[in-house]
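Take a specimen:
=====
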Amino acid sequence: MSDPQRVAVYSIPSHRSFADALAAGLIARFGRDPLGLAAGRILLPNNRAVRAVTEAFVRASGSGLLLPRLIPIGDPDLGERVGGALDQIDDPVPPAIDPLERLLRLAATLRGEGTAESLRLAADLTRTLDALLIEEVPPLRLREAVSQTDSLAAHWEKSLEKLQLIYEVWPHLLAESGAIDLAERRNRLLHGLAERWRDRPPQGFTVAAGITTAAPAVADVLARVARMPDGLVVLPGLWLPNIFPDAEWDGLGPDDQGRSEATHPQLHLKTLLDRIGVARGEVQQWRWAGAATSSPARGRAIANAMAASDFSHKWQRLSPAERRLSGIRVAELRDPAAEAQAIALALREALETPERTAALITPDRQLAGRVSALLARWDIAADDSAGTPLGAAPAGTLLLSIAGAAAEELAPVALLALLKHPLVGGEGDERLAWLERVRQLDLKLRGPRPPAGLAGLDAHFVDVAAWQKIRPCLVPLDNLLAKPIAVAAFATALSIAAEALAGDRGWRGPAGRAAAELLSELQSSDAAQTLSITAPDAVPILRQLLDARAVRPPYGGHPRIFIWGLLEARLQRADLVVLGGLNEGVWPSLPAPDPWLPPKVRATLGMPTLETRIGLAAHDFASALGAPEVLITRSRRDAKSPTVASRFLLRLEAISGGLPRDTRLERLTRLLDDPGPAKPVDRPAPSPPAEQRPDRISVTAVDRLNADPFAFYASAILNLRQLDPVDAEQDARWKGDAVHKALEEWLLHDECDPDRLRARAERLLQDGAIHPMLRALWAPRLLEAIDWIANQERENQAEGRRPLRAEVTGKTPLAGVIVHGRVDRIDQLANGNLAIIDYKTGQPPSQKTVTEGFALQLGLLGLIGRNGGFEGVSGDPVKFEYWSLARYRGKFGRKMEPDKGLQSGEFLDHAYRNFAQAAQKWLTGTAPFTAKLNPAYAPYGDYDQLMRLEEWYGRK
């Protein structure tokens, strides 16, 4: 029988290692008999605590021993269930509904919002329901609280109406399936345990250690354990009167209006003591200590620093000893990248001392990921116990890539992201061959997007042999999301597609198994059969489902370097603890809004406020400060703006007069990757030997050679070309090619009939590859310019001029090299001479550019024609024209004759002289290819990065 007068509640102060002190004390009390420990049991908050206490017993024993039963009561925040040891076979409790099935069923009740939004609201709803269940709020009490709350906004009333309906109906829906909520099952098991132990206490000792949750069911068990003959309750970091006066303790609340200091680190422990019926004066300090302890004076200073605002005036009269925070230092870095680097250096440095352990504690998962990646520089695989969201693991990104490709109907970017995924295409040589085929598709997909689906890609890749090897793997994705599909069917399709693309590689390792389990649960879920998914929702829905699961690597990381989240860090200790991300909004994080329960209703129900999370984060912070050595880090700015230091850090700064700055770490961070003083390059001017200089040149490359010899060198000698972006917009070059093609076909098939040109242009505009926005903007301008060409053609025909050839290539030797090129159109004049025409969808070159020799294309084409370089074309070119479709003086379409600025008959000689000078310098001569030699005539920047233009251009 329990003794109601006996209360055994202890506290292990934060400056001691909780697990080590607990193990040392239990061995001292119950370990004299070799079987003494094995006869007892320890209730712990979660599985991570079980591991920490197990390792503490191993350290404390120095040899083998029989451990007590370590039983987790399950942490709802970690999604953990109550340990099986507490589940009575003779009094079974219904099983808990699977969390995913619960989420999907709740989403089905909210389906009017759309599946993606329904799932998001359902996730928030599960948290709200769990909060109500943990606090054991019956549906009737919720209804009364709502009726007692006045002046709620309309959106809150609508949310509460839906919440009341779900909260009242939901248990009946669960009962029909023979299941209950996980939180409800936890409550029943814990209340049942407390009831059994009331009359029949178990044999041996019972310890409830490290449990800080103030939930009624948990408090019921702890109240029972505290009053059992061999029962002990051991709390972590409860501040006793010697460091936290009674006036401050009582000031935590609740006051007459029910208000409490929700953000204070001791409030949840005060609530717990109130619920188990124990006054703080009855709590004793645990007198045993383990390794990794710090100074008790630091614990007193931390308690003073965390005083509630009503008592912070006491800082003025504190003695220096009560302010001392020795062993704690701060490093402020310029940005998150530098902060991660400094943390990695500090952890690496700790390994220089044998047996020294170090841990990073941070709620910032991005910072933790950066530190983990930086530690890999020294081949350190840190034990990151918080894990990685499944959506960020390779198996998760594979499923997201499949969903993205299906949702976008195999659009180029999504398709290539899928095909290049590291799990796709096999391993070893098979993977290399796969990537080579994908590269062929990549090159073909440069430019505007092809038609959608496999049919569109079949037409686009008709001349690409690699497509036939890749196509079978994409068949499961074709038209997958063309119409709404059930979530269960979508999961099946994802599984089939993953098998086709990655084989069994997608299901390997912890992440692969987690992904397979998720898809299997979706396929077997009844609720998933009723929820439909559409293309826009596919990726957001899948990402939410994947990110809800954390992938924790199996044990086996570095034995002395750890990365912990706030939940995982509880009860654990290291010699050096780095507290990272001490900025406001990160630690503590901003309270997550609850879209279902308004703050007024929460207060009426007596539930924890949203700010309670800040108090829990404050307790985690205060507990972590108890390590022997503590390094606090923060970045002075994030990716967007300057940051504000955490309120916790500011309190420590205020009470101590300023914590010591670790400037050494900041200096090492700067030096680690410092390349030294910048050494800008000089203007590049490569001078290759004669045998490497080309003996052929295109007429379009001559102008580049004159204006920017280096760009010509990179293109013609290094053979470098800028690739078009994948899935690019229809740019000026694409529009020019399309118009040239239409005009070529007009000459070949319509014999330049002016009355047929507009119809051909209209057919061009109907091309499915043209974006509707481009079509709407381009069509009026193009058709006006096309009408101008038709009118120009009528004038030409009236003069006896007729088109001769279109898009014909030719070549001729000039100045010791071969000049070749394609002419857009050649007309024969009434006297038999030739007219050379160049179409321009943009502006033609200015007369000044032609006169100064930086627009030689048309003249060189004339020289080829004069030398008979165009097969099947004879005659003397005497007329040279640019036909521009661009806007000029308020109209679209104009003719520009570049020889007007020269003396009669001088145009071809002018072109030859300028070309011969260029050829003699750079093609047959030894002149260097100087970058941007004539920058006014070199507007294009394809090779600016290669020539490192910004380093030397304009420099004196």
